[in-house]
Amino acid sequence: MAIDISKKVLIITLLIFTILTASFTFTHNMQLSNFLELEQADTLENVERVQNAVATEQGYLDYIVQDWACWDDTYQFIEDKNQEYINVDLQNQTLSGINVNVMIFVNSTGEVVYVKSVDTQTAEEIPVPEGLLAMIEDGSLLTKEEDDPISGFVLLDEDPMFIACHPILTTKYEGPSRGTLIFGRYFDDDLLDSFKKVTRSSLLMYRADEKMPTDFQTKIKNFSENSDKIMVEPINEEQIAGYFGLKDIKGHLALLIRADFPRELYLHGEKTLNYMYFFLLLTGLMTGIGVKFVLDKLFISRLVEIDDFVTKVRSEKDLSKRLSLEDDDELYRLSKEINGMLNEIYLAEQELKAQAREKKVLLDSLNELTVFMDPELRIIWANKAALEHMKMDLEEAIGVCIKAVPGISGSLVEYLHVEQIFTTGEKKSGEFVAKDGKVWFAQAIPVPDEQGKIIGILQTCRDITERKEAERLLHEKQIAEVANRTKSEFLANMSHELRTPLNSIIGFSDLLHEKVYGELNEKQTKAVGNISRSGKHLLSLINDILDLSKVEAGKLELNYKEFELISKLKTIKNLLSPIADRKNIEVKIAVDKDLTTICADDARFVQILYNLLDNAIKFSHENGLVKIEAKKKGDLVEIKVTDNGIGIKAEDQYKLFKPFSQVDSFSSKKFQGTGLGLSLVKQIVNLHGGYVWFSSKIGEGSTFAFTIPIKGNDRNDGNNEVKPLNDTETAENLESEGKNKNINQF
Is the pTM of this model over 0.70? Predict the structure, then answer.
């Protein structure tokens, strides 16, 4: 027997080693493939950072040209060519300051009104590229419609150039267009070096109209068909490259860029996997040899001894023999179990008696009333809870008819029709309300003997008064939640239904105002303009209602992305600068040096800051000051908007952040507004995982502030409230004590 088991152990050991070797090989190849995929994904992410840097530069140029083109001064200059505009706004330092090499003003007839070209490094004038002037003559750079800007690259003899063209409109983005404003920025070596520094990568760029290296030539066909595609492939064992193309303004491939990165991730992973593979193989081999030796020495020989002993005891039927093995292990414990088999018979009998006692203790510990009765409904046994309820002890209760005992037991027998159970054999249950108002859940279960004849009934009763009350409260809560969701969905549906006719009203009124259907007199033009403005104001209100109802219905989702904070704050400032300029209000921005980018829904972030800054400007005095401050608070960014305006009375502060609620009454309103802005601010900040607070003194101004996680956060339930700060509280101590002070904190 020992020889057979030993051979089997050897076969099992070899089989396990073979399986481990195959598993190690498969895992090695699979992990190596995973490292290749990780390298591809990492390279794609790095190349996308380069693309984002280029797109950011183009976006900046598009934004600048729109800002200049939609300006009343530019609109007037293209008409009268006044020298004051040139002297004040078209200095060399101006173009250098906004990083623009070429600025060209073209009127609606295609005539160049003004052109300037400077070196952004030295602010000195340089010749205007002839290629640009040629494209103006053939109309390639001229906008056709008021909402038809041109953006992209052009290949010039000097260098490739970022191009942004925008129709010249009024500050209110109204026409008719008086021409095209063209901004250009050279994509030269200096700009390419700046992209290298920003993305920390090695970049090579070639024009599509020039000869390029072999590896670029093999890619240019694919990029000509799909220039948005990114191609990644290893250059050699040490480096991997990512290729992507850039289109010109006509949609053709203009530039091909290669970003090179070291293959540290793949090489390090491959080296580590090789070491692990050989180490595991060696470990498996040594383990198999050791296990085979140990099993033969410590297990198989002793197992044979146990087998011989059991065979001898069974053949001789001598239960007085005992097996003696050394070592404190499973085989030793097995020998002890064999030695104790005779004693187990006695112990089993004692255990049965102990179990009976335990069952009695267990049943007596139950809070349920438990009674066992015979077919004549006489009590055979009852637990402690039932006896206490009947005010009897067990000796008194045995043999008493259940209908005659005090308490609810007799009533439950009538309620459940217990007598019928002896006929049907089916258990019965139900809820019963006693005279004292308590609710009981009762069950009557038939107990059969071995032949299936019912010999008694086990009746149990449980007091469920508190549970029923909890169910009632839960049901009422669910009804209230359904009503609230129905209200939110109704508002959302009505908002959609209202927007459709409003868009039609706004569209047709704009067409009438633009005299598409014919001339209007002055009063008609003014009336149509009032219709359009009122419709747009009402549409804005409906959009706010739609956003608010989406939040309350749980349907508003956030689209997180990383963006530069200072740039976004400046964008919001520029959007509201015309409103601030009308009241001669200065808007200042202060951001911590170590606070660069944050991760949030950028559109909703703009909505938050737009509302807060718009309110600050609206409620500020003439020649006032509004400050926007951004600070880093641990993992959070804290942003404050402070004004020195009219302030808010203490008794009116509770109205803030409530939908459709405004500080000044409707009859005495001095400031336009729907009362939804701050409510949306609170809800959107809440969804970002942040909280809002404010402080205000009448006549001294107000501060509205909020915090959100810098790296983004999961959505929260949004049940916290906004709290005003008093004279002694600050945003700093509220941040640490927000949970105890009921602040909007998530």
Answer: no
